[in-house]
Amino acid sequence: MNRDRDYPDAVAGPFETPPSTFEDREGREIELRPYDGGDAEFEALVEMYVAFDPADRAQGIPPGDEERVRTWLDGLVEKGSLNVIAWDGDAVAGHATLVPDDDTYELAIFVLQAYQESGIGTRLMRGLLGYGAENGVDRVWLSVERWNKAAIGLYEKLGFEISNSESFEMEMSARIATEE
After folding, report:
1. To 5 degrees, how large is the angle CA 170–CA 140–CA 81?
2. pLDDT tens digits for 104-136?
3. Which residue(s) pair with 91 in the sheet?
4. Which of 61, 65, 135, 155 has the fewest CB atoms within 10 Å of its CB?
5. Of all residues in the chain, what percent carry a pLDDT higher than 90?
6. DSSP-assigned letters across all residues of the chain
């Protein structure tokens, strides 16, 4: 689905690259690390998405039942996506992905409800963008529901700009760079 998108002239970043560990606002030690493709990590992601509150689903994702979650995650991995997971011990607190879209990447991020508003989303985004830049990604876009002011504020803070606001959902885009 390649559309002509405008990307900002300014480059966002630099962003740190995972793995990294930090303490969230609730005092939990959270580890960010790239998805390793193993069965245990895949199953942990499935568990997080099955537990995801339906009220927090946006644009039809994540899917609502385990079979559809598995199919959706298989598709992400098969497409050569770049994925970063936020871990609280052995439990997945959040997941962010960059999905190839011709010569750009679409970004999606999900933080389990019990971990929202604790700083994990910001750190997960920064880690994903750093990981993407480290792997040759330079242009990223996402869509967000226009009522989601918290997400829009986060994306703007990280260097995203509105690139299309003509529909119910807004598209935002960024150019990214990694730490030197």
Report:
1. 115
2. 999 999 999 999 999 999 999 999 999 999 999
3. 88
4. 65
5. 73
6. --------SSEEEEE--SSEEEE-TTS-EEEEEE----HHHHHHHHHHHHHS-GGG-BTTBS-SSHHHHHHHHHHHHHTT-EEEEEEETTEEEEEEEEEEETTEEEEEEEE-GGGTTTTHHHHHHHHHHHHHHHTT--EEEEEEETT-HHHHHHHHHTT-EEEE-SSSEEEEEEEEEE--
